[in-house]
Write a structure and sequence with these properties.
heterodimer; A: alpha+beta; Alpha-Beta Plaits; 2 domains; four-stranded antiparallel beta sheet; 4 strands; 49% helix; B: mainly alpha; Formate dehydrogenase/DMSO reductase fold; 0% strand
Chain lengths: 177, 453
């Protein structure tokens, strides 16, 4: 089944924000918004949160343990060699390698998580509701599948009242996002 | 908060968003002028000379260099440290200024990161060649092997260096690429050419600018920025331990890690300045990289220059204060006076004295002044590394080992080659990748402009 959307297009950040607020006041659920740069107020209004920092913390914890275990295994258990009379487990000089490899692991793992979670993969084509959103327009998208005509008209009027340059109706067969 | 009356708008000329996309992407959408082809030709010639020198080095061995038993590290390590230093520009610029929320970085960080990636790759070339048998370079990886397994020596700064440079390179590339995603999407959605749409669409990874993308993007930028900031400090500290754990007079000092890190940021910022002075002129991007931005970099440089001056005098003072005759000899007979006086005083004049011109507003506001001073800093930082590497090695504890060192044309060729590759890569970058982070510039377009008042 095709899914239908009302798409409001704004050319100013202020009007765009006030439109989100007025839609939320009337308890319309906003499907998503698209902006040319990050707008922090949107994150609060749409209650967007990212758990990436938590994930990164655990990647780091895992990396520290894994790297230290690897260094201990190779230099104490697998093939111990005495370098300049230092103990096999010469912990202080392991710290440098541990820090650098931890940073490395956190970076790669966070990037992979970001890519998987946001579905941003080379060559992927996510649904573009309005192609001007990456240039200079702020776009609000409301899903109107379960709304009757009068309700969707109300959305359009609300957006226009707040200063939308255009309000479009679009249908998509399936959404990649 | 940002005070417009003092620091001026971040983007001049009250631009609309689509104007910003258009102007910044203009160098990619138009065919470059004749100057581009000439510059690319010259840098390619230098690169070809470099490839020839590398061919000779690899096929005949490092006996073709001027290095010898006493001066085992010559131009290659000088150039390695020099390039790694320049490679600190991008991360120092975007990451420290990102964490400190200095938003004037937005128009400069992309170019600075591009320089970082290219410079670090070129830097990594030198130690690899210096191994002699470069095809066995993989021995430095700690991997399970049939020789024992014989693992690498984790106590050695040379191994730390390898790990640090590799990690730094990969992280710089990730950070650089992440920042480009929104811009690739902008190009994809604006262009009419089918090939461009396909190529930038592929690399844009399906970015749409949705709120889900942006919040994770911002969060990831801060994670990468936060942890890479540690790396910026640690990479050059590790490079400095290559020297500091050696017992050579002039190397064996605890001052080295901070001294190297500050020096790296100094040369990195100088290279950013050299590049931006030229770029903003040629591509007419003075509205984005404003005079105030250049002024801010100049202020940072004059401050770092003072730190460098302090570090140089501390080194000399400690050599005298330690009472160690070898240290005394190295600093007073082999650097301040002696065979390598020119390099020593070149370093002092270029790094500690000439940047003091930035105290004058007139110099900070003139593009010739900015360009000249930044070039002198680049030169001075090269002298500094030469001074450290060659003077200490040429005359150490045993006078019977004393040797002078001159590079051969092969060594000069490798260096010229890296300079050529650097210039060629930067020129390609101008043409195929947005010079500035378009989305970030848009986010600061109204800060401090008249629209906000």
């Amino acid at each position: 089944m095709n899914r239908t959307f009302k798409i409001g297009i704004f050319d100013e950040e202020g009007k765009f924000i006030s439109s989100i607020k007025s839609l939320q006041e009337k308890e319309f659920k906003i499907y998503d918004v698209f902006t040319p740069y990050p707008v922090h107020e949107v994150f609060h209004l749409l209650k967007r949160k990212s758990r990436l920092p938590t994930a990164a913390y655990f990647f780091g914890l895992f990396a520290i343990i894994a790297v230290l275990a690897f260094l201990y295994y190779t230099s104490v258990i697998s093939w111990p060699i005495v370098y300049g009379g230092k103990p096999f487990n010469s912990f202080p000089s392991f710290i440098v390698v541990t820090i650098v490899l931890t940073i490395f692991t956190v970076t790669i793992a966070s990037l992979a998580t970001f890519s998987a979670r946001s579905k941003l993969i080379p060559g992927r084509e996510n649904t573009i509701f309005d192609h001007r959103a990456t240039d200079d327009k702020f776009v609000i998208v409301v899903n109107t599948d379960i709304l009757d005509n009068s309700k969707s008209e109300q959305i359009a009027t609300l957006m226009k009242e707040q200063g939308a340059v255009e309000v479009l109706d679009k249908e998509f067969e399936n959404i990649n996002a | 908060m940002y005070n417009r009356k003092i620091r001026g708008p971040l983007v001049e000329g009250n631009k609309t968003f689509s104007q910003i996309s258009k102007e910044i992407l203009a160098p990619m959408e138009t065919t470059p002028g004749l100057w581009w082809y000439i510059a690319f030709g010259i840098s390619s010639l230098a690169a070809i000379f470099g490839f020839y020198a590398i061919y000779i080095t690899v096929s005949q061995g490092i006996g073709t260099w001027g290095v010898n038993n006493s001066v085992g590290w010559g131009w290659e390590i000088v150039n390695f440290v020099w390039w790694v230093g320049i490679g600190h520009a991008g991360t120092a610029f975007s990451i420290f200024l990102l964490i400190l929320r200095q938003r004037w970085r937005t128009s400069i960080n992309r170019a600075a990161e591009a320089m970082t990636v290219i410079a670090v790759m070129l830097a990594a070339l030198f130690p690899a060649l210096h191994m002699g048998r470069v095809w066995l370079a993989f021995y430095i990886f700690p991997y399970p092997n049939t020789r024992g397994p014989l693992w690498v020596n984790y106590n050695s700064p040379l191994f730390w260096d390898f790990i640090a440079i590799t990690a730094y390179l990969l992280i710089s590339i990730s950070f650089w690429y992440l920042g480009m995603l929104p811009d690739f999407a902008t190009i994809r959605d604006r262009t009419k050419s089918k090939i461009k749409k396909a190529v930038y669409g592929f690399f844009g990874m399906g970015w749409t600018g949705s709120s889900h993308h942006w919040i994770r993007f911002e969060s990831l930028s801060f994670i990468l920025g936060g942890i890479a900031a540690v790396l910026v400090v640690s990479v050059h500290s590790i490079v400095s331990t290559d020297f500091a754990v050696g017992i050579e007079p002039g190397w064996h000092t605890t001052l080295f890690p901070p001294y190297f890190v500050v020096g790296a940021i100094f040369s990195g910022f100088a290279m950013v300045m050299t590049l931006m002075v030229i770029v903003r002129k040629i591509y007419k991007l003075t509205d984005y990289v404003t005079d105030n931005h250049m002024d801010a970099i100049a202020r940072i440089l004059v401050f770092i220059s003072l730190i460098m001056g302090t570090a140089y005098s501390t080194e000399v003072f400690i050599a005298w204060y330690s009472g160690n005759e070898y240290e005394m000899f190295t600093f007073f007979r082999n650097r301040i006076t002696g065979d390598y006086t020119f390099q020593f005083w070149g370093m002092i004049v270029c790094n500690a004295l000439i940047p003091q011109l930035f105290w004058f507003r007139k110099v900070r506001r003139s593009w010739v002044g900015l360009l000249m001073v930044s070039l002198f800093i680049n030169l001075g930082m090269w002298f500094e590394r030469f001074n450290i590497v060659v003077t200490s090695l040429s005359k150490d504890f045993l006078p019977s080992n004393w040797v002078s060192y001159d590079p051969t044309y092969i060594e000069i060729g490798v260096y010229a080659g890296t300079l050529g590759l650097f210039a060629a890569a930067i020129l390609l970058f101008f043409r195929y990748i947005p010079i500035m982070a378009v989305s970030e510039v848009k986010s600061v377009a109204n800060i401090g402009s008249k629209k906000e008042d």
